[in-house]
Design brief:
The chain is of the alpha/beta class. It has 16 helices and 17 strands. A hairpin with a 7-residue loop joins strand 2 and strand 3.
Length: about 450
């Protein structure tokens, strides 16, 4: 059997392959899914991909699947690690962080001001896949960006560097890397913070994703991935963001919540309300991602337990169920009612805390003119749709109730949460990341398949 497109989601532990056909028609179809262990440690990720294809064949009752194109998303081989270095933390560093996170990166280090010896030691120790240098509005302060470029170019490392700072420094930065024999590592793009209160994250995000595709094919265990994958490879979080952005163009402002085993990611695509925009203290990107590395319901289950407290969790469990027994029998996919209930409690906490960190807040402050009301952070009040994806929020029985609790909390908080008119949608086929990478080549098919998975007419 031949299908149009296979999309492989290569995770740190699991590889999933999704099959799609009739992709260039008005009725594209999702055929099914196969899952197998990721085989980075075996030295060849293709083994895991092929194993997942065999499971797919069994699930849809066909043999010897052929495909015209295979795309992929990946968080294997450590995903995409970045360090960012800017001038003022609340301005250029923050802008650089938004660009990196929105491109699907995990931040290993963020610094402001001139890099110190200790900062440079941390860069070498953390071994980021990409280094992003920002700093200064256009034609503003130049010294910090030039100093940081000199420091990073002098390091004995072979890591791609993006310069997205003051445009007046571009020639100086290019000369610095040329003198060190590292001009091949440098990419110069538009300033991520060209003017005060203006973010320009899209050019940087595009370059980050281009570099990622080159990097991931050279990572241990991934070197032969091009033998199987003949299309685009994106960071998995970037693919979820791409899906969210693509869908928002059609159905309106939304927030996508992805609770995983190790992290919880939130992707919001909204400009917020006009009223709150008028009192916003700092600019926010239209598309914003936050990732909480301490909020996962499998790898980081103990982290959530520590934060909640065993006594509090016990109160929420069915009487007679013991936490110690649940932990002893804990599995990535719960297969009993007590374990399912336990994971739902963990998931609710992960959603609550990650959203509180993602959403902004309305505050009262005092200045020379007296007391005034300001908004700080991301405004979600114009969001129409709350979308659940990831293993927990696509499979747990109480997934809808978990997300609907967000709307209830908006009535009793100063945080800028989605309001009562927001509706919950579930990525029932668990294909949001696959459709994000698919949308780069087949935007119309991806949109139709998203609506099918979300059960939108």
């Amino acid at each position: 059997m031949e299908v149009d497109v296979l999309v492989a989601e290569i995770g740190s532990t699991t590889t999933v392959v999704n099959a799609f056909t009739d992709i260039e028609t008005e009725s594209p179809k999702f055929l099914g899914q196969g899952q197998a262990s990721t085989t980075v440690l075996e030295g060849d990720v293709n083994i895991g991909i092929n194993n997942a294809i065999k499971v797919l064949e069994k699930n849809i009752n066909v043999s010897n699947i052929k495909y015209k194109k295979m795309l992929a998303t990946s968080s294997a081989a450590g995903g995409l690690k970045m360090s960012v270095h800017g001038l003022v933390y609340d301005m250029t560093v923050r802008a650089a962080r938004e660009a990196a996170l929105g491109a699907g990166a995990n931040l290993s280090l963020a610094t402001s001001g001139k890099l110190s010896k200790r900062d440079l030691e941390k860069i070498v120790k953390t071994k980021p896949n990409i280094i992003l240098i920002a700093g200064g509005v256009d034609y503003g302060e130049k010294e910090t960006a030039i100093h940081n470029s000199e420091c990073i170019a002098s390091l004995d490392i072979d890591i791609p560097v993006i310069y997205a700072g003051n445009k007046a420094c571009c020639d100086d930065v290019a000369d610095i890397f040329l003198e060190q024999g590292k001009s091949h590592l440098l990419k110069i793009v538009e300033n991520v913070y060209p003017k005060v209160d203006m973010l320009n994250v899209v050019p940087v995000r595009n370059v980050i994703q281009d570099i990622f595709e080159l990097h991931i094919t050279h990572a241990p265990g991934m070197e032969r991935v091009r033998e199987t994958v003949n299309g685009t490879i994106m960071p998995t979080p970037a693919a979820v963001m791409e899906a969210s952005k693509h869908l928002r163009e059609n159905i309106g402002d939304l927030v996508t919540i992805d609770v995983g085993g190790a992290t919880t990611d939130i992707h919001s695509v909204t400009d917020g309300s006009e009223a709150i925009g008028n009192i916003m203290l700092f600019p926010e990107p239209t598309a914003k991602r936050t990732v909480e590395g301490d909020l996962g319901v499998y790898v980081n289950m103990h982290s959530i337990l520590d934060k909640m407290g065993a006594e509090e969790v016990s109160k929420k469990l069915t009487k007679g169920v013991l936490i110690d027994e649940l932990i002893k029998d804990f599995k990535p996919i719960p297969d009993t009612e007590p374990l399912t209930e336990f994971v739902e409690i963990l998931t609710q906490y992960a959603v609550d805390v990650s959203l509180s960190r993602h959403a902004g807040e309305i505050k009262s402050v005092f200045d020379y003119s007296g007391k005034k009301t300001v908004a700080i952070g991301k405004d979600l009040t114009a969001v129409k749709w709350i979308i659940g994806t990831g293993g927990a929020l696509t499979r747990l029985p109480k997934r809808v109730a978990i997300l609907e609790s967000i709307i209830e909390k908006s009535k009793s908080t100063t945080s800028m949460y989605p309001k009562e008119y927001a509706l919950v949608l579930i990525d029932n086929d668990y294909i949001f990341a696959s459709l994000g990478v698919l949308s780069k080549t087949y935007p119309n098919a991806a949109l139709i398949l998203m609506k099918n998975s979300l059960r939108i007419n």
